[in-house]
Amino acid sequence: xxxxxxEKRIKFWTAFAKDWLLCVWLSFLGWLWEMLFxxxxxxxxxxxxxLSLPICPIYGITIMLAFYLFGTP
Length: 73
Hints:
0% strand; 74% helix
């Protein structure tokens, strides 16, 4: 394997890891935002996530998809 190919692979996996972590972070922020909204609107805590972790992947995936389709703001 030559050096250029190795550097390309490292660059790809670095970008993939960065994007994956950003997606997880955005999923957590989406979950937090929804929990705060429900707490303020209905005055009670309701975990509306379908996972046992405090994340809602639909928020992270949607924002990442918008980033890829329209570019980052």
